[in-house]
User: Which sequence fits this backbone?
């Protein structure tokens, strides 16, 4: 129990608090509190109730993790870090949420609550829906050694993503890279490093804007140890937006409407529904859809007047040139955000089936995670993130019904079916998408990259 020090309790400890530190004696630690006190004060904020005439401390109504003096509550609420802050201009609530063609709130049914016949019915539906060229073709793509271990075995994930961007013709200056779920911004950092060449310095002044480079990092949480603040190159703009992708209207981001550079979406391990939100954000923003035809990579205008007319397009950002997103955590997808709803419905599947397949998708890696517990702790390895997102494995009901290898095969099939809906969505928006195994499973178990560029027929 905490109390003010008595002579007896100080007999074997420091007799007085450290200069400028709190005068409250912590009995459990047998020492004074080491918190700094305000000028003229004896106790720190947490122990201020010991001051004569002080008001009692109460829990902050905005954040229960700290307390505040009751008589200073009104003043505190105006400056509390947990207070509701004004939304930025590009915040439009639920603009990328999608409209669910089904129940608004779907009750999750645990696989352990389903009977054997219900599970078998789900497996039959899965196999029936997965039949077709889209699964066979992309499984062949995923199994191509050129897209996996032999090409990228010893490369970092960022290097592999950059390699795919380059192969798609997307890795170049004169465009804006949007990194969704940016975290510290390491992917943008390596994109910048890859494009950090002296060639752009030789560009004539009237073509400078074509050699500019913008990197827009989207992350809903505050992030420590960000790397984007270290870049100060001329002609390069780094900007960070702290906003949930669900509420981001790209047409209202000032950086995108200034030079109207073509857009390239990127992301490393966009967890579950974040992938669907990013696809909607890129391809369903109203004023982005108005200009779906991408310009040639390096059009040289005949003169300054051509540049002026190119910029005279209102406040719309540039067109979307393509995307490359590393997929992650299909078990965290949500029907209300999922871009492949029509794809599922056309195959006789509904929101409840989707929910079950999402849960079953975790089977693709659960067994492998146990086997690969000895993986390297390399900072680029995504294992730590995957373990945070790892679901509770529901295997009791399927023990004896499916072998571990069969469960993994079913889990992979669920992932590909969910991704098949995303490919279908891209096709309806005029993009040719594909799935590639961009690194080996020893680097990360979530090793599939979704990429897309405009279809030849739409250019």
Assistant:
């Amino acid at each position: 129990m905490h109390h003010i020090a008595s002579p007896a309790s100080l007999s074997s400890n420091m007799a007085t608090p450290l200069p400028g530190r709190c005068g409250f004696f912590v009995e459990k630690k047998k020492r004074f509190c080491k918190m700094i006190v305000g000028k003229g004060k004896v106790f720190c904020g947490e122990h201020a109730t010991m001051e004569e005439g002080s008001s009692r401390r109460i829990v902050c109504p905005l954040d229960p993790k700290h307390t505040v003096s009751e008589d200073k509550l009104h003043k505190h609420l105006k400056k509390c870090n947990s207070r509701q802050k004004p939304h930025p201009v590009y915040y439009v609530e639920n603009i990328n949420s999608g409209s669910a063609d089904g129940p608004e709130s779907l009750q999750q049914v645990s696989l352990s609550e389903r009977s054997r016949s219900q599970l078998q019915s789900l497996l039959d539906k899965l196999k029936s829906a997965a039949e077709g060229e889209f699964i066979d073709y992309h499984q062949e793509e995923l199994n191509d050694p050129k897209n996996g271990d032999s090409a990228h075995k010893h490369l970092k994930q960022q290097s592999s993503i950059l390699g795919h961007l380059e192969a798609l013709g997307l890795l170049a200056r004169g465009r804006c890279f949007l990194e969704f779920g940016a975290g510290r911004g390491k992917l943008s950092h390596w994109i910048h490093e890859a494009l950090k060449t002296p060639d752009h310095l030789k560009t004539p002044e009237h073509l400078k804007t074509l050699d500019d480079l913008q990197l827009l990092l989207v992350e809903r949480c505050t992030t420590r140890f960000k790397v984007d603040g270290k870049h100060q190159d001329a002609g390069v703009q780094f900007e960070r937006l702290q906003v949930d992708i669900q509420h981001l209207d790209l047409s209202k981001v000032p950086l995108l409407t200034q030079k109207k550079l073509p857009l390239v979406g990127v992301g490393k391990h966009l967890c579950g529904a974040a992938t669907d939100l990013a696809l909607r954000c890129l391809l369903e923003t109203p004023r982005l859809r108005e200009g779906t035809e991408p310009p040639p990579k390096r059009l040289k205008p005949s003169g300054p007047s051509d540049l002026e007319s190119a910029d005279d397009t209102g406040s719309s950002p540039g067109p979307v040139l393509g995307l490359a997103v590393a997929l992650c955590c299909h078990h965290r997808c949500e029907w209300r955000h999922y871009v492949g709803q029509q794809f599922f419905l056309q195959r006789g599947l509904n929101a409840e089936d989707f929910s079950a397949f999402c849960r079953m998708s975790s089977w693709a890696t659960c067994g492998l995670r146990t086997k690969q517990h000895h993986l390297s702790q390399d900072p680029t390895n995504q294992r730590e993130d995957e373990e945070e997102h790892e679901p509770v494995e529901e295997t009791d009901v399927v023990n004896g019904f499916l072998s571990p290898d069969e469960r993994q095969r079913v889990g992979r099939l669920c992932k590909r079916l969910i991704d098949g809906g995303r490919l279908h969505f891209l096709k309806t928006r005029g993009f040719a998408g594909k799935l590639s195994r961009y690194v080996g499973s020893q680097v990360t178990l979530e090793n599939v990259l979704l990429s897309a560029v405009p279809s030849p027929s739409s250019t």
About this structure: The CA atoms of residues 134 and 295 lie 29 Å apart. The mean pLDDT is 76.
